[in-house]
C-alpha cells in the first residue's frame, strides 16, 4: 500500500504543477525536485512503510497548503508581504520534507534494504501463508452443506458435455471453491469417465516447474525410479511429456487457486486445450483469469450460503444435535453468531470448530461477545486457514498498487450499504486516487478499476442499470472488516459512530485495534445514530489533513445546525470530497464553505436547505475585491467536478447563483432557472450531465443553445423541465441537432406540439423520458424507430385514443413505463414488436379496457406491473381471466389496485 500512497501523491503533485502553475510561481522548481525525490522512494521495500507514507502525505500537505494560502490572497500583488512570506514558508517546508526523504533513504541503505520489483513484497509475505493454504486432493470433507446440486451439475458438465474443455469455479476467498472441486474430483462417475487424474495447487506465487512435475507424476503413477527421472527432466521435456499424455489419454487435471493471467501463460504450453479429450477444472477468485484461460470456458460462480444452510453447517461443525434437540437459548445464540459469518463457509467452519470446544452456555455467551476477534484469528483452525482475515487478505495483497486505495475507500460506507457506483467513482476521481491514463478519461479508468474489483470477487454487485452497467455495489461483511482493518493499518481512513451521548465509537469490528493520531487522519466517515445532536466529536475537530469527509445518517436523526459543522469549513481546508447527502437543517448553506478551495466533490442531494447564502464582503478570504463582483460563495470551489444542488432552495437578496467559474465541472443537477444565472452555463464546456428545471419558456434555453452550442456538444445526459409555453417541433430539432454523437439520455418535461421525425433524435439515444408532453398524436411509431432505445418512460405524454407498436418497432427496448394516458382506449402490438422487452408498467390509463393481444408474442417479458387501473382491467388478468393467456408466460405479475396488490 505504501507504493499506492506514493503513486497518488506523485500524481497529485504532478497535476498541481500543471494546473496550479500560476500560484506555485517561484517555488515550482522546488516542487519538481520534491516530486523527483519521491519517485526515488518508490523502489524501496515496505519495511519503512509508516515513514514513507507520512513523507508522501507531508509532501501533498505542503503543496496544497501553499496553494490555499495563495488563493486566499488572490487579487493582491505577488510581491505583498503575505505572499512573500507564504513562498518562504513553503520553500522551508519543502526542504524539511526533502531532508526527511534523504534521512530515510540513508537509513534504508544502512540496513541493507534493496530496491524490489512490483509484487516481490507479496512473495515474501506469503511464503509462510502459502504452506498453510496448500490444498491436497485426498482431504475430502464429510460435513459439506449446500454443494449437492452444484456438485451434480459440474459432474454432468465434465462427463457429458464435450463442448467445455475448461470449467472454472469462481468466487471470493472462503466460499468453498476448493471443497467443491474436491467433491467433484472424487465422484464415482468422474472416476469412471477419465483415465488419469491430477491435482495441482498453483497459488499466488506460481512455480510452473513444480506444477508440471506434480501433474505428470499424478497422471503417470510412476515407480520410484521413474519419479526420479521425471524430477530430472528439463522444462521443455516436462512440458512435452505432459502435453503428450493429455493428448493420448482422457485426463482430468484440477488447477486449484489460479490467480493471474501471467501464471496461466507459464502453464499454458503443457495443456492441449481444444485439441484433446482431457479436461481442466480450475478454481480462481478472478473471473477475468477464468475467461483468459479459455474464452469458451463455463464459469460456475459459488454463492454465499443461505441463513438456513449456514445454521445447518454450524450444527455439524459444532457437533450440535439436529432437529429440535438443542435448547432454544443456545439456538438463539448460535443463530446470532452465524449471522456474523455472512454465509461464508470458512467463517462458519472456524466458528463451529471453536464452539465444539465450549460446553456451557456461559462459554457460548463469551464467544458471542468476542465473535469478530475469534473469526479474525481463526482460533481452532490456525493450521487449516490461518484465520478468516488471512483467507480474504490474500485477495487484497494480490491487488496491483493502483487498486488498493480504491478498495480501501469502500471502507467509508456502512455495513450492508448499497453503494451507488457513480458516487463512488466520482469520489475516487475527486480524491486523486484515480486519474486519466493514456487517453482514457478518469471516469472510464474508475469504471474499469471497479469492474476489476468485481471480477476479483472482492466487491459484490448490487443492482445493474437498464444497459447492464453496475448501478450499486456492496462489500460482504467480512470483506468490509478486512477493508477497515487494512485502512487502519495504512492510516488511510477512520470510520466512527456518533451516538446520542456523542461518544465516538470505532466503526470497525475491532479486528485490528490500531490507534490513529487524530490530527493526521486523511479520510473520515461519520455515522450519526438516532438521537445524535452534534456532527463531529471534539477529537476530530482539529483534523486539518482531511481529504474526504462523508456523513451517513440513521433514519431518525434530528435537525442539525450548521454551527456544528464549523470545523469542516474552518479547519478542514484541504478537503477534496464532502458528502452531505440527506443533511437535515432549516438553515442556509454557510458562506464559510468558500474556504474549501480544493473541494472537487460536494453532494447536497436530498438535503432540505431553505437558503443558499449570498456572499457579503465581511468574508475574510475576499479582502480587496470590489462589491458586486462575486454574488455568492460556491463559485470559489473551482475544482468541483460534480455538484448536486438541493431540489429546492432560495436565495438571499436579488442576485442569482453564479455558475461560470466551474471549468472542471462534469455533472450539475437541480439547476433552478429562477435562481441561477443560466447564461453562465455556456462557459461550462466540460459538462457532460446537466439537469435544469423551472424554466418559463424555451426562449430561456436559447441563451445557452445558440447554434452551434458548445455545451450541447459536450453533454451526454440532459434533464429539462419547461413550464408554461409549448415547445415547438422545430426547437426540438435544433436541440437534437447540436447534441454530441454519444448523447444517450434525455428527460424532457414540457408540453410538446409534435415530435420531430425519428432521424432528428440523437442517434445513440438509450434512455428517454417524456413527461407532461400532452401529445395528441401517437408517439409510438416515431419512438419505435429509435435503434438503440432501451428505456422509455412516458408519464402524462399522450392525449390520443390509440397507440400502436408497429412490426419490428422498438428493437432493443427493455423497459417501458406508461402512465396517465387519460383518453387511451386501445393499444395494439404487432408481430415482432419489442422483441427484447423485459419489464412493462402501466399506470392510471383508466379508459384502457384490456391489454393488447400482441403482448402474448413478447416472449422475453419477465415482469408486468399494473397500477391503479379499473377493477375490470385487473380481473381480466387474473388466473382464469379473459386476458390471462396474454401474460401467462410472464414470471412476475403485480396487479395493484389503489390500496392493495393482488
Q: Can you describe what's shown?
A:
The chain is α/β, with parallel strands linked by helices and 902 residues long. The protein has 30 helices and 29 strands. The strands form five sheets. The protein has a 17-stranded mixed beta sheet. Strands 2-3-4-1-5 form a five-stranded parallel beta sheet, with helices on both faces. A three-stranded antiparallel beta sheet has the order 6-8-7. About 7% of the residues have low confidence.
Question: Tags for this entry?
Answer:
902 residues, alpha/beta, Single alpha-helices involved in coiled-coils or other helix-helix interfaces, Rossmann fold, 17-stranded mixed β-sheet, five-stranded parallel β-sheet, 30 helices, LRR_R13L4/SHOC2-like, Rx_N, ADP binding
Q: Tell me the overall shape.
A: globular
Indicate the CATH class of the domain at 128-301.
Alpha Beta
Helix content: 25-40%
Number of β-strand runs: 29
Strand content bin: 5-15%
- Structural class given helices, strands, pairing? alpha/beta
